[in-house]
Design goal:
The chain has eleven helices and 19 strands. It is α+β, with helices and mostly antiparallel strands and about 425 residues long. It is globular, with a radius of gyration of 27 Å.
């Protein structure tokens, strides 16, 4: 395509400001048309640092976001100003700026998050353990299926049963008390904030001693999960008991042994269901300790979309990840350079992927696509579990046969992907 042809190409300006340029080009002797889309967006994007934020035309909004973030720290008493102890390790911080649309009104919110550079932490000095428990995907499906049964059965509890709702904890990690002593440097603009709020201003030798968790700390997720678990198990609370096989799942039964309340946690998210009176009591109990956002009926959790429906068999949850799965299919087709052939089964019936005896073929690409499909199989694609298991056995030395099997698996998804009915 010559530069003169580009200059003479017709330009179409859409109502949203998008510009489309139509370019004629020849491929294999056939005239075709390619549409090049260029976005003329006046949005300067998210600032990378404090200097960009102050020099942008949106500094008043970013300043408000900074004040809101520091107000959270002050409210939670997350840190205190102290003189730098001799020989103490002081971790550096960074402010992250991000524009986020409101979930309902779509109004742009200017969010600023102060994070600690956790990669500077040393195990045994700044923290001991970092592993945080999370709920298993099987537990989520089990709870939803049980909730459907409890809601739609003809005997009590019946119609008063809340099927599934979700909640988020605001400023999550600021509610997690730390067991270790951690010092951080004074973040940017904190001095100006203290002056505007009438608080003591930090000096050159001032550092901040953390009383609560901070985003970026290696151990903060573990500290929060421990505290969230305490809320659920507190004898003064609603009487939940912790599951032995999955410590992130909690259940309450009445005197007859009937389930009246279930809840699970995944870091700062929770899903709960049960009798309406019990769910209301749970929300009230949690709100006495932390600020939460009740997200209403469950519609999405950890990338999975949930839609409640009913067919001739009965009620069900439709569990799907269409955006992720079709993105994987498109990426695989782009990787191979051709459209996938469609298959009726995810693997060849009665055959296994044989060990590669020849030269290895694109190990990094093979591992990437196996990892992508593994992620979604355990959530919504049980019919592809065995085919994915076969592929996973050849990560160290993938060959032609392994790639053929992967082509078949993605071809099956292209032809027969359907949401999982739970």
């Amino acid at each position: 395509m010559s530069e003169n042809a580009i200059q003479q190409a017709p330009i179409i300006i859409e109502p949203d400001g998008t510009v489309q340029m139509a370019l004629d080009f020849l491929e294999a002797g056939n005239p075709q048309m390619m549409i090049h889309t260029v976005s003329l967006n006046s949005d300067p994007g998210d600032p990378a640092n404090m200097k960009e934020a102050t020099n942008s035309g949106e500094w008043p909004q970013w300043k408000k976001g900074l004040h809101s973030e520091y107000d959270n720290f002050t409210k939670q008493k997350a840190w205190e100003q102290v003189k730098r102890p001799r020989g103490a390790r002081v971790l550096r911080t960074k402010n992250v700026y991000k524009k986020k649309p409101h979930a309902i009104t779509k109004e742009i919110r200017y969010k600023v998050r102060t994070v600690v550079k956790g990669y500077e932490q040393i195990q045994g000095v700044d923290y001991t353990e970092s592993y945080a428990l999370v709920v298993a995907d099987q537990t989520v499906r089990m709870m939803l299926a049980t909730s459907l049964y409890m809601h739609f059965r003809t005997t009590e509890p019946g119609p008063d049963w809340v099927i599934a709702k979700s909640l988020d904890v605001e400023a999550t990690f600021l509610n997690a008390p730390l067991e270790e002593t951690v010092y951080i440097e004074v973040p940017e603009y904190y001095g100006e904030y203290c002056r505007s709020r009438g608080l003591p201003e930090p000096t050159e030798d001032t550092v901040l001693k953390l009383n609560m968790g901070q985003y970026g700390l290696v151990q903060v997720a573990r500290a929060w999960v421990k505290r969230f678990t305490v809320f659920f198990l507190d004898p003064k609370g609603v009487g939940l008991l912790q599951c032995i096989s999955d410590p992130c799942f909690f259940v309450k039964r009445d005197n007859n042994g009937t389930i009246v309340l279930m809840a699970l946690i995944y870091i700062d998210n929770a899903i709960y269901c049960g009798l309406q009176s019990e769910t209301e009591a749970l929300l009230k109990w949690i709100q006495e300790h932390v600020t939460i956002t009740d997200s209403g009926d469950l519609d999405t959790h950890l990338g999975v979309d949930y839609v409640l429906g009913e067919d001739e068999i009965g009620p069900y949850f439709e569990c799907s990840m269409p955006k992720y799965i079709w993105g994987c299919i498109s990426e695989f087709e782009e990787h191979t350079g051709k459209q996938l052939k469609e298959y009726r089964t995810p693997a060849t019936p009665g055959s296994n992927v044989l060990k590669n005896q020849e030269e290895m073929v694109n190990q990094s690409g093979y591992r990437k696509f196996v990892g992508k499909i593994l992620f979604v199989v355990k959530k919504v694609l049980p019919d592809c579990a065995n085919a994915t298991r076969e592929l996973s056995m050849h990560l160290e030395n993938p060959g032609i046969e392994g790639w053929k099997a992967m082509h078949r698996l993605f071809g099956y998804l292209r032809a027969h992907y359907r949401p999982l009915k739970l």
